[in-house]
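@here heads up, posting the sequence + SMILES for the nicotinamide-adenine-dinucleotide run so it's all in one place. Ping me if the SMILES looks off, I pulled it from an old spreadsheet.
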Amino acid sequence: MACTGVTAGRIVEQRAAAAMPGLAGIKAARSAAGKPAARAVMAAAPARRRTLRVAATATTDAPPAAGTANSNGGGTRVMIIGGDGYCGWATALHLSARGYNVCIVDNLVRRNYDLQLGLDTLTPIASAHERVRKWGEVSGKHIDLQVGDICDWEFLSQAFTSFKPEHVVHFGEQRSAPYSMIDRQHAIYTQSNNVLGTINVLYAIKELSPDCHLVKLGTMGEYGTPNIDIEEGYLTVTHNGRTDTLPYPKQAGSFYHLSKVHDSHNMHFAARAWKLPITDLNQGVVYGVRTEETMADKALINRYDYDGIFGTALNRFVVQAAVGHPLTVYGKGGQTRGFLDIRDTVRCIQIAVDNPAPKGEMRVFNQFTEQFSVNDLARIVTAEGAKLGLEVKTVSIPNPRVEAEEHYYNAKCTKLRDLGLEPHFLSDGMMDSLLQFAIEYKDRVNLELIKPAVDWRKSPVSVATMSAAVAKQ
Ligand SMILES: NC(=O)c1ccc[n+]([C@@H]2O[C@H](COP(=O)([O-])OP(=O)(O)OC[C@H]3O[C@@H](n4cnc5c(N)ncnc54)[C@H](O)[C@@H]3O)[C@@H](O)[C@H]2O)c1
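bot reply: prediction finished. Complex structure tokens:
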């Protein structure tokens, strides 16, 4: 079901990118210029003091020449916090390929969650340093990598001072709802990492780069499932004869989703108090793994999570179908959410960067392209699997979450379309290639990690890391 209320797009996303996007453009430009690959310099620096805090590298190179032929970034400096993660890595390469000057800031903690819980991505991913080095070799573009924690003010302020971002794209949070519900410790970690990290970013912009535009990843899950249409961030209300436009009410469904709500409130305040330009992107559930740039070399491949903690609905179903595991529908399966292809995630970010929010405003975009229920997804995966000779079964399992399993859901998502987003829809052949991809890597699947093991109702005070990843049979 396509996103409701979509209007014909006013196309302001640069057409040049569509005409000669990404690596195709780079290859053409490089062969014309005969330029060698750019350097990827990463100097080691001392380890920092807190647990899960890793070394910082202050590595800003001289910015590359502003823009290149066939690109439209013009050397614009974009700091990507969380640029080693699923959405961030694809976005970093997408923007770098198009002539933006990209700096990745990441403490690599996502890799640490896998170590904590015994999880692994379906795809073998290279180290952050190797990825960036390989990108330099493949594309001739330099991406700066600064490894450190945004909750560490000393590190973050140094990263800002050295890179001088014009835009900060902030993906750098703990992003799993089940992870936040493992136990008290993981709930506290999620909220402190996410909320405090974002406050640091707000202070860094105010103090060090006051004209810098913040593009912050929120989630559609902030809204919950109200019995009225979901607007893009704000709702005009008439109450006792008076009318105002107010932040849309939030009814988040986990401590993770609540961390995003708190971020939104903090950003809304900072935009007003300090006249910061902020875009809050309430993203839907992302699916897919391939983008043009991440498929350019095996060292650039993106992560793909299928486990019960970090795997998202459609990506999980695809892997389940590929390995002959029944699709695990939670409860009645009427849970409906907004979804988008990772190729649209990266384009939405580019659109937000190219069209910054005005100073003093927290603009909100709902970043998804289609709505599906869990049962819709199971039907689609079953039908597409049959075309590949897979016999796909579905089981309903007790819902580990506390959520409505049948509900009204109609969320608006017109603003990014109005700014030029041309979506990839699930029906455009994506399922076939995603299934083929999962089949290619199916020998890496650990079947024990598929069933959900974190129960919202239990979430104990005692540390439950050992039981979090593998469900009791
Ligand atoms: N993946 C989805 O379907 C989805 C949907 C809606 C919203 N989002 C949001 O998009 C963002 C990115 O999601 P993702 O799937 O790429 O997550 P991810 O876990 O793959 O990536 C997040 C990255 O941020 C880094 N990070 C976390 N805390 C940090 C800190 N304190 N300092 C520095 N780096 C830190 C991690 O190491 C990781 O590389 C998140 O904010 C998430 O909430 C994702």
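MO: The domain at 15-468 is CATH 3.40.50.720 (Rossmann fold).
MO: One more: Confidence is low (pLDDT under 50) at residues 4-21, 29-70.
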